[in-house]
Design a protein that fits this description.
Number of helices: 6
Order of helices and strands: EHHEEHHEHEHEE
Largest sheet: 7 strands, mixed
Distance between the termini: 26 Å
CATH topology: Aminopeptidase
Shape: globular
Structural class: alpha+beta
CATH architecture: 3-Layer(aba) Sandwich
Strand order of the largest sheet: 1-2-3-4-5-7-6
Low-confidence stretches: none
Radius of gyration: 16 Å
CATH class: Alpha Beta
CATH superfamily: Gcn5-related N-acetyltransferase (GNAT)
Number of strands: 7
Amino acid sequence: MNIRKYQEKDFEATKYVCLNDMLGKEGYEKVIEYVEVMFCRYYLEQEPQNCFVAVDENDKVIGYTYGAADYDNYQNNFSEYINAVAEIENRKFLNDALTEMFDHAIYKKDYPAHLHIDILPDYQSKGIGSKLIKAFCDNLREQKVKGVMLIVGTENEGARRFYERNGFTLLQDMPTGAAYGMKL
């Protein structure tokens, strides 16, 4: 297993990891495109310099971390992606994304960056997530970003423990999830 910078050739495999939890599940076919646009394409297209992948011995993507280094830049560029999914039948997902964007804005002064991370189930609990977060945060430090935050499901105790073990502290429990931040 190796952690490296994202490359254009990784697009489909990274998208697969992002969508893996939903593929084949009943009811999710209507939101796959939405999730791809909102939680994958933006970062890979607009901020590839902030994308890292974990690859196996065959250079196959098995996990990623990506995010935005600056909230204001993210907000300015993300609107085109919101418009791209405005016609989705299930408006709840779109409303959730807009709410999460607002939640990120609350912390932008001290935590201007945010991240997303995902690893295929067979590779979880092997230290890969910690290595991905380290690569992402080291990259932000090089850019002189002063803090990074994320939002995780309030009920997701395993993920909350993972983030705490990796240096994040709870900022606030909110209706949309638990906000965690790390000063860089």
